[in-house]
Amino acid sequence: EPEVTQTPSHQVTQMGQEVILRCVPISNHLYFYWYRQILGQKVEFLVSFYNNEISEKSEIFDDQFSVERPDGSNFTLKIRSTKLEDSAMYFCASRGGTLYQPQHFGDGTRLSIL
Amino acid sequence: LAKTTQPISMDSYEGQEVNITCSHNNIATNDYITWYQQFPSQGPRFIIQGYKTKVTNEVASLFIPADRKSSTLSLPRVSLSDTAVYYCLVGFTGFQKLVFGTGTRLLVSP
């Protein structure tokens, strides 16, 4: 069964450094998402992306965050200057173009900010 | 997006059938009901989705009464590996974001 893959599985970064989280969505999917989950808390929406542009973003997704689909297969989340509170699991999800198709998630990147 | 209410936790034993009920009193006409499963340190995994009556796949069944104000996820003959958090989500699952609640933590014991 096709799946969403994310790399790295664990990223440790010094506060203030830039980090890029990578995702390879399912190949024929058209809609892409990033979510995050702080330890012990709910899964929270960050951003959705379609047709090479952001379609919706949450309050969490401030100017320090950006997303890109650089080459038609990868989907990346960049955090420009990381803060301690950015420590969380980050999940990428994708879905197909047909209405009512569910989102499929990757297994996440655990981001630890020191 | 319709608000959902589900039990915080449930306990079961291997081999038993588990039913997790979700209340969604303000479900809208074009809302679908979707269930996800999440293991620790993994992403949510899609289990099943439905609009009305009953939907069954290889892992679960979803029962939705005529008024659609609640739904029940049924897991037949659970095993230890079904220990996870189960999320009920209700909304127009077009291209919108998903809004997760706290889910139901299911613990399956030997």
Note the topology.
The complex is a heterodimer of chains A (114) and B (110).
Chain A lengths: L4 E3 L2 E4 L5 E6 L6 E7 L5 E8 L2 E5 L7 E4 L6 E5 L8 E8 L8 E2 L3 E5 L1
Parallel strand pairs in A: 2-11
Antiparallel strand pairs in A: 1-3, 3-8, 4-5, 4-9, 5-6, 7-8, 9-10, 9-11
Chain B lengths: L8 E5 L4 E6 L8 E7 L6 E6 L2 E4 L4 E4 L5 E6 L8 E8 L12 E6 L1
Parallel strand pairs in B: 1-9
Antiparallel strand pairs in B: 2-7, 3-4, 3-8, 5-6, 6-7, 8-9
Structural class of chain A: mainly beta
Please name the CATH architecture of chain B. Answer: Sandwich
Number of separate domains of chain B? 1
What is the CATH topology assignment of chain B? Immunoglobulin-like
Number of helices of chain A: 0
User: What portion of the residues of chain B fall into strands of 2 or more residues?
Assistant: over 45%
The biggest sheet of chain B amounts to: 5 strands, mixed
Q: Tags for this entry?
A:
heterodimer; A: 114 residues; mainly beta; seven-stranded mixed β-sheet; four-stranded antiparallel β-sheet; 11 strands; B: 110 residues; Immunoglobulin-like; five-stranded mixed β-sheet; 47% strand; globular
Architecture overview:
The complex is a heterodimer of chains A (114) and B (110). With 114 residues, chain A is an all-beta fold. Helices cover 0% and strands 50% of the residues of chain A. In chain A, the strands form 2 sheets. In chain A, strands 2, 4, 5, 6, 9, 10 and 11 form a 7-stranded mixed sheet that branches. In chain B, the strands form 2 sheets. Chain B has a 5-stranded mixed sheet, with no helix packed on it. Chain B is mostly beta strands. Chain B has a single domain (9-109), classed as Immunoglobulins (Immunoglobulin-like), CATH 2.60.40. Chain B has strands spanning 9-13, 18-23, 32-38, 45-50, 53-56, 61-64, 70-75, 84-91, 104-109.
